C-alpha cells in the first residue's frame, strides 16, 4: 500500500466504496488523513465500516471542513449530470480528485524520479500496459503495474527512485487527476466511447490529451485524426512528442512495416524490434501496442536487446486473442473480450483460415460491420441469442451452423479445422456479443472455451491454465 501522506492531518471526504474506493480510503487513513466515506450501496458502506473506515451520509456533512473530496472514477463527474456529491463539493469549493491523482502526489513527495509510464486510449491500453510491464520485469527492473488493470493504484508498493510504475488510465481516472505527470505518457488511439459520461467526442478527447500533455515525453498514435491533431498541438506547445503508427511510414517516430518495428529519424529508418513468430502479438493492432511499449521502455532506459527479449516472451492477456492450445496445424484462440463487432475485427484480420465461434447477446449493428472479413472465415459456429440474426447476415457468404452452445461449437469447429489442409487453421472464439445470455461475464465464457479446447484429445495447452 502507498500511504497517502500528501493529505496527512486533513479532513477528506470520499465517495464510492468498491474495491478501489476502500483501498484508497485505507491509504488515506494510513497516511494520516481523517476520512469520512459514503456510497449509495448499503452493502458497500457496511464492508467499509467492517474494515475500520468511518462512514456517514455525506449529504449531512459540513463540507467547509473538507480539504479534498476523493471520488470513485465510476461516479459521474460531469455527464449526464454531476453526482450529488460532486455538486456538494463544488458548492463548497472543495477540490475533487481520484486515486491516480493521489498516486501522482505521493510519487512527487517520495521519489519524483521514479520511472512512471501511464497508458491510455480507447482500445489496446490493457495489452500495452501488460506488455510494457512484462518487458520491464523480464529485464529485471523493479516493476509495479496497476490502475485500471489488475491492482488499484494505491495498493502498489510505495515509490522509490528505481521502482518503475506502469499504470493504465481510463478517461474517468484522468478526469480526476489534474497533476498527472508521467515520465512517458502513451495515448494509443481515440474512437467514440463513453460519450454518455463525457457528453461529446471533443470533451472525451480533451480529457485523454491531459495525460500526454503532462508527460516528459508524449507517445501518441497518429492513425486517427483526433490523436494526430493532439500530437501536432502538443508539439506546437513545445512538448516532446514521439509519434507512432501501425500503418504509415513516418519521417520521425516509430512505425510498423509488416512485422518489423522501425524507428525513423529525419527520414532515415532502422529496425528496432520485430514481431515475427510472436503469436501473442499478432495483428496490426498489436503492432501499435508493441510500438508504444518499445518507445516507452526506451525512454526509461532499456536496451533494444532487453526489449526484444520481453516481446518474445510476452504471454498475452487472457481473453484477448489468447492462444490457449494447439493440435497439429489447428490453433485455438480465446478472444472472449470481443463483445461487439469492432472488438472482433482485430482477431478476424489476423488469421486467414478461421473457424469462427460467434454469438451471445447481440449489440446494435450485429456483425454487418465485419462483412469485409467474411472471406477469411471457413465456417461460422453460432451460439446464443444472436444466432438467428447472425445467420441471416452471413447468408450465403459464409458456411455456418447454429451450434447453440459453446461446448458444441468448440467440438464441431475443432473437428472441421482438423480436416483443413494447406497451412494453419484457427478455431477462434471472438463472439462480437456480450456474454450475458449464457455466461456471467466474458471471463467465464473465455474460461469455458479454454477448458473445452484443452479437453479435446491431442490438444497441447499453450501457456498453462490461467
TrEMBL record:
ATP binds at residues 121-127. This is UDP-N-acetylmuramoylalanine--D-glutamate ligase. It comes from the Bacteria. The lineage of its organism: Bacteria, Pseudomonadati, Pseudomonadota, Alphaproteobacteria, Hyphomicrobiales. It is found in: Cytoplasm. The keyword Cell wall biogenesis/degradation applies. Keywords: ATP-binding, Cell cycle, Cell division, Cell shape, Cell wall biogenesis/degradation, Cytoplasm, Ligase, Nucleotide-binding, Peptidoglycan synthesis. Pathway: Cell wall biogenesis; peptidoglycan biosynthesis. Belongs to the MurCDEF family. GO terms for biological process: cell division; cell wall organization; peptidoglycan biosynthetic process; regulation of cell shape. It is an enzyme of class 6 (ligase). Its EC number is 6.3.2.9. GO terms for molecular function: ATP binding; UDP-N-acetylmuramoylalanine-D-glutamate ligase activity. Cell wall formation. Catalyzes the addition of glutamate to the nucleotide precursor UDP-N-acetylmuramoyl-L-alanine (UMA). PANTHER family: UDP-N-ACETYLMURAMOYLALANINE--D-GLUTAMATE LIGASE.
Amino acid at each position: 500500500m502507498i500511504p497517502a501522506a500528501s493529505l496527512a492531518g486533513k479532513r477528506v471526504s470520499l465517495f464510492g466504496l468498491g474495491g478501489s474506493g476502500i483501498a484508497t480510503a485505507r491509504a488515506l487513513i494510513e497516511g494520516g488523513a481523517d476520512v469520512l466515506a459514503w456510497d449509495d450501496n448499503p452493502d458497500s458502506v457496511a464492508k467499509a465500516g467492517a474494515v475500520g473506515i468511518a462512514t456517514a451520509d455525506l449529504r449531512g456533512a459540513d463540507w467547509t471542513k473538507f480539504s479534498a473530496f476523493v471520488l470513485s472514477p465510476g461516479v459521474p463527474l460531469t455527464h449526464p449530470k454531476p453526482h450529488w456529491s460532486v455538486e456538494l463539493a463544488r458548492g463548497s469549493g472543495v477540490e475533487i480528485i481520484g486515486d491516480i491523482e493521489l498516486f501522482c502526489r505521493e510519487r512527487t513527495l517520495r521519489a519524483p524520479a521514479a520511472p512512471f509510464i501511464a497508458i491510455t486510449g480507447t482500445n489496446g491500453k490493457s495489452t500495452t500496459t501488460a506488455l510494457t510491464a512484462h518487458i520491464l520485469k523480464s529485464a529485471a527492473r523493479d516493476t509495479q503495474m496497476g490502475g485500471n488493470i489488475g491492482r488499484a493504484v494505491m495498493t502498489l508498493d510505495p515509490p522509490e527512485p528505481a521502482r518503475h510504475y506502469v499504470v493504465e488510465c481510463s478517461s474517468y481516472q484522468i478526469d480526476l487527476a489534474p497533476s498527472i505527470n508521467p515520465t512517458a505518457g502513451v495515448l494509443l488511439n481515440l474512437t467514440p466511447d463513453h460519450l454518455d459520461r463525457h457528453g461529446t467526442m471533443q470533451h472525451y478527447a480533451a480529457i485523454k490529451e491531459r495525460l500526454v500533455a503532462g508527460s516528459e515525453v508524449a507517445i501518441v498514435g497518429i492513425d486517427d485524426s483526433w490523436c494526430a491533431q493532439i500530437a501536432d498541438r502538443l508539439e506546437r506547445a513545445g512538448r516532446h512528442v514521439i509519434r507512432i503508427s501501425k500503418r504509415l511510414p513516418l519521417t520521425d517516430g516509430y512505425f510498423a512495416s509488416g512485422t518489423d518495428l522501425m524507428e525513423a529519424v529525419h527520414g532515415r529508418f532502422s529496425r528496432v524490434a520485430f514481431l515475427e513468430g510472436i503469436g501473442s502479438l499478432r495483428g496490426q493492432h498489436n503492432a501499435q501496442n508493441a510500438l508504444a511499449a518499445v518507445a516507452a521502455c526506451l525512454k526509461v532506459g532499456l536496451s533494444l536487446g532487453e526489449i526484444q527479449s520481453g516481446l518474445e516472451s510476452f504471454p498475452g492477456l487472457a481473453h484477448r486473442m489468447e492462444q490457449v492450445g494447439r493440435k497439429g496445424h489447428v490453433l485455438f484462440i480465446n478472444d472472449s473480450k470481443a463483445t461487439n463487432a469492432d472488438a472482433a475485427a482485430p482477431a478476424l484480420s489476423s488469421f486467414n483460415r478461421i473457424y469462427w465461434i460467434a454469438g451471445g447477446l447481440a449489440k446494435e449493428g450485429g456483425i454487418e460491420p465485419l462483412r469485409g472479413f467474411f472471406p477469411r472465415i471457413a465456417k461460422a459456429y453460432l451460439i446464443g441469442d444472436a444466432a438467428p440474426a447472425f445467420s441471416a447476415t452471413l447468408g450465403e457468404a459464409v458456411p455456418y451452423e447454429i451450434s447453440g452452445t459453446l461446448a458444441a461449437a468448440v467440438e464441431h469447429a475443432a473437428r472441421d479445422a482438423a480436416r483443413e489442409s494447406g497451412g494453419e487453421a484457427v478455431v477462434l472464439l471472438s463472439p462480437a456479443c456480450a456474454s450475458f445470455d449464457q455466461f456471467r461475464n466474458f471471463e467465464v465464457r473465455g474460461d469455458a472455451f479454454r477448458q473445452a479446447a484443452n479437453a479435446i484429445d491431442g490438444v497441447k495447452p499453450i501457456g498453462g491454465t490461467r
